[in-house]
Specification:
Butyryl-CoA Dehydrogenase, subunit A, domain 3; 10 helices; 386 residues; 4-stranded antiparallel beta sheet; Butyryl-CoA Dehydrogenase, subunit A, domain 2; alpha+beta; Butyryl-Coa Dehydrogenase, subunit A, domain 1; oxidoreductase activity; 4-stranded mixed beta sheet; 10 strands
């Protein structure tokens, strides 16, 4: 059995690595040194370079101008993005594209081509009102009484990345009969009467938005009612978050190895000291566990196991996703904390790149649920097994 990546997947990772090779986190102010967000918008120049390299069209089907790749390719690209703290909505656009391709119907043909060309930016809302509740319960969707097929949305979604500058927000909502759906809304001023945006700033200093919806009317063609659409989007966002964490962990481990190899005490590199070597070895184990659980979860989603669990695999794919997020959350936190410790005083310098990696790691650790929440979900899944 071949456990390696396909040629197309490896090519996507190599292309992403080439585009990101000139990207550095040094040029963005530290959130601790900034009043408000570190920047008003994402890196548009980098976004256009990604589009020219065809990295934004990877997830659309060939008939929509894409390569037809799946979650594994998305995670490979996101790993490279995480390594350089790329300030672009790759996670949100990639997860939205894969969801639209599978469940979008006519919306896929309308939105995927411009998204792949970098002309359209779709972000996602996945945190609900507080970040500690099912996101789909935060917004209520009611069918319009005029029989036009439109929907009226009531509620709010918090911590929406790039919400102020994206062209669309793909957000979950629930109907009165308990079904979950996805709605595409335009955050531009005046596009939807009743929609307002409020400023928020994330742990890593990026600009977020609270999206409030007061009887916001959305045409039926902008609403995805297919069963499983929200579950797929949430799964993709979760494994994508794990991929970003893996990229951060990989880069932090690399830079820490380089630093401890050249930093000397008592005439010897500190990497030769047993206490340093043991800590570095523990973090290497964390990194390998993050990697193994991420690819297992991404493969389960890509292979369709989430919809077709059989006797050979009694646990649903949600279990693999929960395990991956537990390792990503705990692993990336331990990696950046150990890195700061081994860097000594330099590790506490808030103007250094390591400080920004720590801030991003903390953001990803808590995004879409901390380790404790996913351990609880995993326990519930295990308890349901005969």
């Amino acid at each position: 059995m071949d456990f390696g990546f396909t040629e197309e997947q490896r090519a996507a990772a190599e292309a992403a690595r080439a585009v990101f090779s000139g990207t550095s986190p040094d040029g963005v102010p530290s959130p601790a040194l900034s009043r408000g967000p570190a920047a008003e918008d994402f890196d548009r120049a980098l976004w256009h370079r990604l589009a020219r390299a065809d990295l934004l069209s990877l997830y659309a089907s060939p008939e929509h101008g894409g390569a037809g790749l799946g979650p594994l390719a998305l995670c490979l690209v996101l790993r490279e993005a995480g390594a350089v703290l790329a300030r672009v909505p790759l996670l949100e656009c990639g997860a939205a594209a894969l969801t639209l391709r599978t469940h979008g119907g006519s919306a896929a043909a309308r939105l995927l081509p411009p998204l792949g060309r970098g002309e359209l930016v779709i972000t996602t809302a996945a945190h609900g009102r507080t970040g500690h509740e099912p996101a789909e319960r935060a917004v209520r969707a009611l069918p319009s009484a005029d029989g036009s097929g439109a929907w009226l949305l009531h509620g709010e979604q918090t911590a929406v990345p790039w919400g102020h500058t994206a062209d669309r927000v793909l957000l979950p909502a629930h109907t009165d009969d308990g079904r979950a759906l996805l709605a595409l809304v335009r955050p531009a001023p005046g596009a939807h009467p009743g929609l307002t945006l409020e400023e928020q700033v994330s742990t890593n200093g990026e600009r977020l938005a609270r999206v409030r919806l007061d009887a916001v009317r959305v045409d039926g063609q902008e609403v995805i009612t297919a069963e499983g659409a929200w579950d797929r989007l949430r799964a993709l966002l979760t494994v994508g978050t794990c991929a970003l964490a893996l990229g951060i962990g990989t880069e932090v481990c690399r830079t820490t190895s380089e630093y401890t190899g050249r930093r000397e005490q008592f005439g010897f590199p500190i990497a030769t000291f047993q206490a340093v070597a043991v800590q570095a070895a523990d973090r290497y184990i964390d990194l390998r566990a993050m990697e193994a659980t991420l690819w297992q979860a991404a493969w389960r989603i890509e292979s369709g196991a989430a919809e077709s669990d059989g006797p050979a695999c009694p646990l649903p794919a949600d279990a693999d996703i929960a395990v991956a997020k537990v390792w990503a959350a705990e692993g990336v936190r331990r990696i950046v904390q150990t890195a700061q410790h081994l860097h000594g005083g330099y590790g506490a310098d808030i103007s250094s790149p390591l400080h920004r990696y720590h801030a991003w790691a903390k953001q990803l650790e808590l995004s879409l649920g901390p380790a404790a929440a996913h351990l609880e979900a995993l326990g519930d899944l295990l308890a349901e097994q005969p």
